[in-house]
Amino acid sequence: MAGGIQWDSGAMGCAKWKGVRLSDLLNKAGLKKDAHWIGFNGKDKAAYYETPNFVRELELEELDDHVIVAYEMNGEDLPYLNGFPLRLVIPGYYSDSWVKMLSNITVTNKYKSLFFMDVAYRVPDNATESETPENKAKKTKPITNMNVKSIIGYPENGMKLYHNAHLVIRGVAFDDGHGIRQVMISTDEGKTWNEALLKQEDGRYAFTEFRFTYKPTKYGKLNIMAKAINRLGNEQPLSKDILWNHGGYKYNGIDVVEVEVV
C-alpha cells in the first residue's frame, strides 16, 4: 500500500493506493538476464482519434518497492475514471507515467520507439530542463520526477478579508518523495518570509499540510505567497525565475494568491 500524489495538467489529488509490487509480478513471471525495458499499455483511449494509444516505458533500474500495480484507491475498488481495473502507480513521478486501465506489461531488452516516449510529455535533456522559443532543445527526455511545490488552498484568489481579523492560511506541499522540510509564507511581496506549521501523517509521497496564522493590518490588495523547501534544500523559485520549456512542463513557481483587505 502506498500514499501518493496524482498530478497532471488538469487536476491533482492525493490518494491511498493498494496493489501488488511490480517487482514481485516481474519476479513471478521470470525475467531474462538481458531484460532492460518495461512497456505498459492501457485501454485508455486518446480524445483525438489520430493520437496513438498511450504506451509508456520504464527502465528496469527505475523500479523500487514503491512502484505498484494498484487495484484499490482509498479502500475501495479502483474507480473507472481513475483507471479500473488496474493502474500503474509510480510515487514521485508525474502522473503521465501512471498508466490507467492497464492491459498488458511487456519486458524487452531493447527500447521501443513510442509516441508518448519520443514526442509527447518531454522536457529538454539538460541540467536546467530548459530551452528558448528561438533555440529549442534538440535532445529531450520523458518527464519523470516531481519538482518541489506548494499550493495555497485558503484563502482563494479574489476573496475579501476583514482588516485585523484572524486568518489561517492553509495549503499543501509535496515533492518526489524526499520530504518537505519547510513551507515559508510572505505577505510583503517576498521581502520577508515566515515559517508555516507542517503536518505530514500519510507517508513520504503524500501531501504535507501547512498552516500559517496571520492578521491583515493594511487595507487594499494583498498578495499571499508560499514556497516549499524539501529535505535536499530544493526550493520553489519565483515565477519570473523559472526557465522556459515549450510544453510548460514541471512548472513549480511560488504560489501567489491575491486577496483584498476591507
Which terms summarize this structure?
globular, 2 helices, mainly beta, 19 strands, 5-stranded mixed sheet, Immunoglobulin-like, about 260 residues, Sulfite Oxidase, Chain A, domain 2
Which fold does the CATH topology of the largest domain refer to?
Answer: Sulfite Oxidase, Chain A, domain 2
Euclidean distance between termini CA atoms: 47 Å
Low-confidence stretches: none
Helix content: under 10%
Total number of helical segments? Answer: 2
CATH superfamily of the largest domain: Oxidoreductase, molybdopterin-binding domain
Order of helices and strands: EEHEEEEEEHEEEEEEEEEEE
Number of strand segments: 19
Question: What's the overall geometry?
Answer: globular
CATH architecture of the largest domain: Alpha-Beta Complex
CATH class of the largest domain: Alpha Beta
Spatial extent as radius of gyration = 21 Å
What's the story with the biggest beta sheet?
5 strands, antiparallel
Which percent band covers the strand fraction? 35-45%
Please, what is the average pLDDT? Answer: 91
- Give the helix/strand class: mainly beta
Number of domains: 2
Helix-strand layout with pairing:
Elements: E1 2-7, E2 12-21, H1 22-29, E3 37-42, E4 55-59, E5 68-73, E6 76-77, E7 87-89, E8 102-108, H2 115-118, E9 122-124, E10 140-142, E11 149-154, E12 160-161, E13 167-174, E14 180-186, E15 194-195, E16 197-199, E17 208-214, E18 220-230, E19 255-261
Parallel strand pairs: 12-19
Antiparallel strand pairs: 1-2, 2-5, 3-4, 3-8, 5-6, 5-7, 9-10, 11-13, 13-17, 14-15, 14-18, 16-17, 18-19
